[in-house]
Amino acid sequence: QPYPVTPENRSESTKIPPPPIPRAIPVYVPPAQAGPAKKGSSFLLNIVKYLFVMIFITSLLLNFYLGALFLQGGLSEQEYRPGKKSQRIALIDLAGSIDMETQYQFQEMLRQAEKDDTVEGVIIVVNSPGGQVVPSDMMNQYVKAFQKKDKKIYASIQQVGASGAYWATAGVDRMYAQPNSMVGSIGVIYINLVLKEALEQKLGISPVVIKSSRSAFKDRGSPFRHPSEEDISEIQQDLDKIHQQFVHIVKDGRHLDEEQVWKLASGDVFDGEEALGKNLVDEIGFLDDVIDALTEEIGLENPQVIRYFNPPSLKEILFAKSAEWSDSLDIEKQWEKWATTPRIQALWLGQ
């Protein structure tokens, strides 16, 4: 029987070594793989990329546009009829209601035609019921000044050439009208809206107007009260005076007797055929007929016909709609616009 081994008699050789510490076995974990992209997120990403590209391209185009405007100086030309660029006819549009901005653009276009040696003649294309008196008269003066430069200027009335528009163009070298156009309305009109009752009864607003002690007529034409008999008398005198000026403009521009013009100065309009019979226009014809007639009178051969226009500004391109909405909702701006519009106008209100 072997000798028993006890802790006391255990020798170094007989000691049992401790069990080895097990080494950690590395566990292979495969890298996480992204699952399939969701269809919605992929579509949204493509939309964002598309919008970014479009914004970039739009930015480039706008930069080219602004650069071209800077080099050109503001006015642009559009070819209406091809032809020789060494001898040209320019079309200037007179459209919409006439105000100070209209006369400014009209003046700029006439100046452009005046300084351009290749432009031999001008045709004013009329589609306007008239408007404010002062700019209409200024445009008439611009036409007279242009005629001194030995360049012909015609007018072509398309839809309507009435009141202030007729005032502005009465002195052209030759005036044409389409058969069914509306011509004339030689007269002036006073327009004012009295809002007193509407403000008080509908909105509960009572306007308060205080005048300086020595300016009794300061609120003449105010929308906050009805005109007095004295107001009406004074306004009538102003209207008659301006009407007289209008008649003289037509008399001189159309080479008619004053008595003859007064017979036509009732404010009525006439179609093209009637206007021809009353010597308010020289010929019946469409724009192409006017171009051919001017080409023949000047003695040109196949001239290029161009049309002047003012290109929209960058602000108008980007913010046109938002500006319209903001202005329409801005009561202060609307009131300022109404307050700065003259009450006496050379304007045909239509039928």
Lay out the secondary structure.
Blueprint: H1 39-72, E1 76-81, E2 84-95, H2 100-115, E3 119-128, E4 130-132, H3 133-147, E5 152-162, H4 164-169, E6 174-177, E7 182-184, E8 189-190, H5 196-202, H6 229-254, H7 258-264, E9 269-271, H8 272-277, E10 283-284, H9 287-298, E11 303-309, H10 314-329, H11 331-339, E12 344-347
Parallel strand pairs: 2-3, 2-11, 3-5, 5-6, 5-7, 6-10
Antiparallel strand pairs: 1-11, 4-12, 7-9, 8-12
Helix pairs in contact: 2-3, 6-7
Count of strand segments: 12
Return the structural class: alpha/beta
What is the helical fraction, as a range of percent? 40-55%
User: Separation of termini?
Assistant: 142 Å
Strand residue content = 15-25%
Sheet with most strands: 9 strands, mixed
The overall pLDDT, averaged over residues, is 82
List keywords for this structure.
12 strands; alpha/beta; flat; 351 residues
Task: Give the gist of this structure.
By secondary structure, the chain is α/β, with parallel strands linked by helices. It has 11 helices and 12 strands.
Structural description of this entry:
This protein is an alpha/beta fold and 351 residues long. It is 44% helix and 19% strand. β2 (84-95), α2 and β3 (119-128) form a beta-alpha-beta unit. α2 packs parallel to α3 (133-147) and α6 crosses α7 (258-264). The longest helix has 34 residues, at 39-72.
